[in-house]
Structure formats: C-alpha cells, structure tokens
C-alpha cells in the first residue's frame, strides 16, 4: 500500500546556468539543444525537461557520465539550486514556490543530503557531528544526542560516539555523515556520490548497510552514482541522464533488456545479467501452499509438488514440509514433519546472490517479501532455465 505511494513528483524541470536563462528557455521550448543554447547564448543547460516520480520506500538511482546533470538535478529537488522552470511536489505539496522559512523546514524535515566528502567538523565529537543538523533545527541537547546516538547505532558506530572524526577511518567518517542525515529522520535521503570516495570493500559494505536501512525503515532514497554495479545493486529503479536529459527510467532489468539508445546500452555492456534480475521477478507461483492455521484437516493425497509451503493467516512463510506421493497428509502432519525453515530468499535478492542458497537447499526456496509474506519459490531447474534464456 505505502509502497506504491508517490512521494516526490518532478514535472518538466529545467535548469539553465547563466545570466540570461529566459532567452535560453525560449530556445529550449522551441526545440534547441543544450549545445545550440551554449554556443548561441553562452548559457549552460544543467537539467533539461526532467520529469519523474519517486515512490515511498524506494531507492531511486540517478546515473550518467560526468557533467550529465546528476548533481544539478538532485540539488534542484531540495532547491539548493533554483529551477528555471517546472514544478517539484513533495507529498503533494508544490515546493517550487515556498518562501525561505518553509523551504528551510522542508530541508530540515523532509530532505537530508549526504555528500561525497564527509564534511565533518574536526573539532566536534562524532555524536556532536551526528547531532549537528538537529542543533541547527533548535532541538534541545538531550533529545538531539539521543537521536544522534540511535542513528550512530544504526550505522554501527554507537561505541564511537565520543571519538573525534580524525580517529575514524574514511568509511567510518562516511557513516557519521549518513548517521547525521538519518538523525534528522528525513522523508527522503538525497545522496550525491555518497560512497564514491570509499575503497571498494567498504563501499560494498555501505551499500549493504543502505539496503538494510531502507528495508527496515522504509527509507526513500535518491542516490546518485556513476557506478553501474552500485546502481544495479541498490536501485529499485534507475534514471539515466545524458547532457541534462533523463533518457531512460526503469528497473535495472527493464533498462538492460530494452536500452533506449546506444548511450544507455553502452553503460550496460558487459554487465552480468544475473545481477540485474531480482528473484521476485522470476519466483514461480505454482507450488502448493497450505494454511498452517486451518482447523479443517485438509487431506492431501494428490499433491502437485513434492513440498508443501506452510503459511500463517497473514500469508507469511512458516515452514516447508515434504509430501509423500499417494500418502494422505493433513495440516497437522505437515506441521509436525516440516523441515527447518533455514532456506528462504528476500524478494529483492539478485539472481546472482540466490544461486548458492538455492543450490544448497533441499527444496525450492521460498521467496519472501520484507514482511516474510510468501511470493513463490525458486528452484534449481528454474534458475538454469532463466540463465539459458538470458
Ligand atoms: N554553478 C554552475 N554554474 C554553471 N554551470 C554549472 C554549474 N553547476 C553545474 N553546471 C553545469 O551543469 C552541467 C551538469 O553539471 P553537474 O554537476 O550536475 O554534473 P554531474 O552529472 O553531477 O557530473 P559529475 O559526475 O562530474 O559530478 C555541466 O555542464 C556543468 O558545467
Ligand atoms: Mg556530480
């Protein structure tokens, strides 16, 4: 329900840098390109007619080459940069015409930004750094330290609260930056190349952390990256920018299967398809499911598969039980014979990451959403068939 709610709506947003944006905007409306505008007027088009929506709880990644307009676009979202035209709606409210005070509130409460450079205050302790945004908002010391500590614990730095930034590694400093944004408890986190300065292992770890936070807290995140592996790993959807324009928006798999043009295709060239496919997209729905709480003892003599998947009233996975062909099984007997629920997959796991789990599991692995609700199963055969088709 909340998953489909659109939290941010960007409509026909343009940004022209220069002292005569109106002239440039007229040219753009009449079909001129970024290059024509630049050569004829000297005005630089940062973002060209951007329209998209971001849903509550999704990680929306913006990708593109250097200079394609990613940072400009994300700064337009919280009006660190003023749009030349177009509208931006946050939770249905148009923020493009907000006055200073209301705009400040939006930045404090709704959109926290995490930058590439750690931007920590060297003379302040870790907790003071994490509480800094709250301090600016005038929140009392006790409350802000409580919230900062909670945020530090969320990123695994609770025990470093009283260290100085220079006593932390680069990755840890970036976590403090993330904790500072989280402490604000913003509606949307804006992250501009937030992990780019980190070495690959730490970067990978931080991506995992972000995915976890997003799942646990239903965070909505707009994340800029120029790294495709990163975009595929964390992005529910990706917007690809070229020369100020958004040339394509879609799930990693959609874009990979149907790139809008050669520029987009060149990004995805050589990408391992098993990383872009999520298990929820290939889970099979035909396995036998049984309500574990059913009081009526359903006799299962002619079962379609070899395993029955037991679900509670909310559709959540409880366990899996073998079915002996020809022998009658009841809910009670299935419950008593069920195997340990050791193997399951989160719906947003990539096919690549699922392979080792499915190959170890004695039964087709149940695919579950974030709340544990059963979505289908994934078997070894089905993985092989999927790989063969790609
Ligand atoms: N303050 C500014 N004044 C004039 N032009 C600007 C300004 N900021 C950005 N631009 C221009 O807008 C375009 C997009 O820049 P932007 O910083 O958004 O790119 P980017 O995609 O974030 O690049 P990178 O990957 O290098 O960070 C570029 O042509 C840039 O020169
Ligand atoms: Mg940038």
From TrEMBL:
Boundaries of every CBS domain copy: 335-390
Primary gene name: proV_2
Keywords assigned: Amino-acid transport, ATP-binding, CBS domain, Cell inner membrane, Cell membrane, Membrane, Nucleotide-binding, Transport
Alphabetized SMART domains for the sequence: AAA
InterPro entries in alphabetical order: AAA+_ATPase, ABC_osmolyte_uptake_ATP-bind, ABC_transporter-like_ATP-bd, ABC_transporter-like_CS, CBS_dom, CBS_dom_sf, Gly-betaine_transp_ATP-bd, P-loop_NTPase
Annotated catalysed reactions: a quaternary ammonium(out) + ATP + H2O = a quaternary ammonium(in) + ADP + phosphate + H(+)
Residue ranges of every copy of the ABC transporter domain listed in the record: 8-268
Organism this protein belongs to: Marinomonas aquimarina
Protein localization: Cell inner membrane
Official protein name in the record: Quaternary amine transport ATP-binding protein
């Amino acid at each position: 329900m909340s998953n489909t709610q659109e939290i941010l709506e960007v409509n026909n947003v343009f940004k022209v840098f220069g002292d005569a944006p109106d002239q440039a905007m007229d040219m753009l409306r009449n079909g001129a390109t970024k290059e024509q505008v630049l050569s004829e007027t000297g005005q630089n088009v940062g973002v060209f007619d951007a329209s998209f929506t971001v849903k509550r709880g999704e990680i929306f990644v913006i990708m593109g080459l250097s200079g394609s307009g990613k940072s400009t676009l994300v700064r337009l979202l919280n009006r660190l940069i003023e749009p030349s035209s177009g509208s931006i709606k946050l939770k249905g409210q148009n923020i493009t015409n907000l006055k200073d005070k209301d705009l400040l509130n939006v930045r404090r409460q709704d959109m926290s930004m995490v930058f590439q450079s750690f931007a920590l205050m060297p003379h302040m302790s870790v907790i003071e750094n994490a509480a800094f945004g709250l301090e600016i908002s005038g929140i009392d010391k006790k409350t802000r330290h409580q919230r900062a500590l909670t945020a530090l614990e969320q990123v695994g730095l609770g025990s470093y609260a009283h260290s100085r930034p220079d006593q932390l590694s680069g990755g840890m400093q970036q976590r403090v930056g993330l904790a500072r944004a989280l402490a604000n408890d913003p509606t949307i986190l804006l992250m501009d190349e937030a992990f780019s300065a980190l070495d690959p292992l730490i970067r990978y770890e931080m991506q995992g952390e972000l995915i976890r936070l997003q799942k646990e807290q239903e965070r909505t995140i707009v994340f800029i990256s120029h790294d495709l592996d990163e975009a595929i790993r964390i992005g529910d959807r990706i917007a690809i920018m070229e020369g100020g324009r958004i040339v394509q928006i879609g799930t990693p798999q959609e874009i990979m299967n149907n790139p809008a043009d050669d520029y987009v295709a060149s990004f995805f060239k050589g990408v391992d398809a098993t990383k872009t496919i999520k298990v929820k997209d290939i889970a099979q729905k035909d396995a036998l499911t049984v309500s574990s709480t059913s009081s009526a003892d359903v006799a299962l003599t002619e079962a379609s598969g070899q395993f029955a998947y037991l679900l509670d009233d909310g559709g959540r996975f409880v366990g899996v039980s073998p079915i002996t062909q020809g022998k009658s099984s009841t809910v009670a007997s299935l419950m008593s014979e069920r195997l340990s629920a050791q193997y399951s997959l989160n719906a947003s796991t990539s096919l690549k990451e699922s392979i080792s789990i499915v190959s170890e599991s004695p039964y087709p692995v149940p695919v579950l959403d974030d709340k544990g609700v059963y979505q289908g199963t994934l078997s070894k055969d089905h993985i092989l068939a999927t790989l063969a088709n790609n």
